[in-house]
Specification:
mainly alpha, globular, DEATH-like_dom_sf, Death_dom, Death domain-containing protein
């Protein structure tokens, strides 16, 4: 990792786009948890709906099975909601019942 990336202070108010660039390990962890479709456990589709992605958009995101739909969702959100912060993402994850992922973003030493 480049020195300038290590020195970038990230907070809960940091934009999602900044997090995706400077903390790819967090992105991967979220994708591992949200990509799985399991009964009774909300996944990336639930988050997408919560973030106002329509059903056609969700279908487009799931078309390429060789790439993480969660990461594609985050890429889409960078464009459609450029001011989206990690704090807002945590709130939405909590509202779909994924407190485990809220905890991951809090306890993963990703933010100051």
């Amino acid at each position: 990792m480049a020195a300038d990336q290590e020195e970038t202070p990230l907070t809960m108010g940091s934009k999602l786009s900044t997090i995706l660039i400077h903390k790819p390990e967090l992105t991967q962890q979220l994708a591992l948890c949200l990509d799985r479709e399991m009964q009774l456990i909300p996944n990336w589709k639930h988050l997408a709906r919560k973030m106002f992605v329509d059903e056609d958009g969700i279908k487009r995101l799931e078309q390429h099975s060789d790439y993480s739909p969660t990461i594609r969702l985050f890429d889409l959100l960078q464009v459609t909601q450029p001011d989206l912060t990690i704090q807002t993402l945590r709130k939405e994850l909590s509202e779909i019942g994924r407190n485990d992922l809220c905890l991951l973003t809090t306890e993963g030493n990703y933010f100051k």
